[in-house]
Fold this sequence. Notes:
The structure holds two protein chains of two kinds. Chain A is an all-beta fold. Helix content of chain A is 0%, strand content 47%. Chain A contains no helices and eleven strands. In chain A, the strands form two sheets. In chain A, strands 2, 4, 5, 6, 9, 10 and 11 form a seven-stranded mixed sheet that branches. In chain A, strands 1-3-8-7 form a four-stranded antiparallel sheet, with no helix packed on it. By secondary structure, chain B is an all-beta fold. Helix content of chain B is 0%, strand content 54%. The mean pLDDT of chain B is 92. Chains A and B meet through strand 5 of A and strand 5, strand 6 and strand 11 of B.
Amino acid sequence: NAGVTQTPKFRVLKTGQSMTLLCAQDMNHEYMYWYRQDPGMGLRLIHYSVGEGTTAKGEVPDGYNVSRLKKQNFLLGLESAAPSQTSVYFCASKWGRGPSGANVLTFGAGSRLTVL
Amino acid sequence: AQSVTQPDIHITVSEGASLELRCNYSYGATPYLFWYVQSPGQGLQLLLKYFSGDTLVQGIKGFEAEFKRSQSSFNLRKPSVHWSDAAEYFCAVGVNAGNMLTFGGGTRLMVKP
């Protein structure tokens, strides 16, 4: 059982290049999230999805797009990368709506992106 | 809007000493509160959570946290720190019935031998 898998783990881009980060979960979770982590700022929500075919903006969505064509995958795209997007990106998922003992976020190991 | 403050960016304790990491939140409704730990190069692992009921919650690895509504706090404690506890710790508040998490800036814990 792999849980939440992020690819790639590391990537270096030049300003203006595009790329896609892939998040895959094998737990049949409905909800999926993309966060970025920057020193001293904790994790900030970029976009999230509450089910296949749905996406919504989080706290810092500008410069990013997402898609959830399949329930198990959540893609994060950068159309024209900027140095301000240098960060560590985390994907997370959870079973569904509302709190319960088991309904908590499961995180991937992160993807470190550097934009030169 | 909700917010989470972790006042201590870095904390250093000696192995075997007790630990308390502070977390203050701002949220108008009933909070759902979480502590996560992140080891270097790893994702976040849930230590414990508070949804309702007993305000003292027990977590994994010997950690506990106490919810104090009057102080808007959810401090994390451990009676005796082990070298393997060195990591970064994040407090988070869940809004929208716990479906959206807002994280604090994190506290990096270093453990002296």
